[in-house]
Predict the 3D structure of the following.
Amino acid sequence: MERLIFHIDVNNAFLSWEATRQVKNGMPDLRLIPSAVGGDRDKRRGVILAKSQPAKAFGIKTGEPIGMALKKCPSLTVVRPDFLLYETCSAAFMKICRKYAPVVEKYSIDECFLDMTGTQRLYPDPVALAYTIKDEIKNTLGFTVNIGIGANKLTAKMAGDFEKPDKVHTLFPYEIQEKLWPLPVEALFMVGRATADRLKKLRLANIGEVARMDVETLCGFLGNKFGHQIHQFANGLDDSPVTSEPREAKGYSNSTTIDHDITQRDEALRVLLVLADSVSSRMRADEAKASSVSVTLRSTDFVDKSHQKKLHPPTDITGEIYRAAEELFDELWDRRTPIRLLGVAVGQISHEDDPQLSFFKDEERERARKLDRVVDDIRGKFGSGAIVRGSTCGTIHEAGKKHKAQTELERKSKYEKQHEKREEP
């Protein structure tokens, strides 16, 4: 049976999701004004993670410092990243996808694959079905997606990138030469900047030239495994399966594909802290603790690496999970290759305290756990933006002490300026 795969990707996810929330609250649509998702506008700290089309017109680029962006556009609206919001929106659009597909694979927080193989009798026109899914997401949730359709995961993903936003594209086997081969080599999946430069040294300017090149010569230049894979991809060949997630997870995880290449350790650690904070807060909500933590990173050449370590005693404390993640990250990253994706996962979950450990309480750990729960409580009532952790491990507890004193006063005033509860997207 011929395979039929959809790839669904949210257009400008972080900014679109924040814009959707603000529109529901009667605020201007961030997608229609110069705006960006990034760090602290007032302190001019952090970098641009996502930008609107009007901001792009001012020359604002993803990855540039906020201070530089504000010089280009003083009226730029900057909102802080909110990964809890992103998780909610991600789950919402994937829930719609699961209405139509027997198998859905979450590829990242803002994209997924649908295996529609065998559904042709139910949905005889795959393009019409793609428009149905796309329009339902837009009309129900308020943000747009691109859908690519192909005979495998590679061609579906490549098709979805042809033109954005809010589009449906196909890349079937008979369309490879017409649609795929004329594209420049850097447009091919898994070909990053460095690989593209190497291919151009072989006088290979477009994907078709890579596809027609002798595979042995290509393997000799790029290495046997990678060269063979690039040659397969250039010919539109890919046999990797679409794998659905287990319904009952045995751990907690969060990952994010960054809109720009991360090249600085401090920036990567800030992302890891947000991810560790998200994972640990979900554990605390379930009264769970983890005995292992792992970190995954994906380079700009789409090479995944991951390391794992044990945690003793089991923990749900943000600081402990973050420090372990920091250690694993330093083992993984060579400090030369730019990073595209970061993920933090915890496993070996338990729901009961070790009797021996609960008898001998560690006062410092108990203070950290209580502080975490105060943070969780405030966020649960007033949104995830009500309190922000320090950006490095060393500042977690210092920031916590400052926030604890500050938030006690704010709690007494019941956050008069933040009464509105977050709506589900």
In short: The first strand starts at residue 5 and ends at 10. The chain has 16 helices and twelve strands.
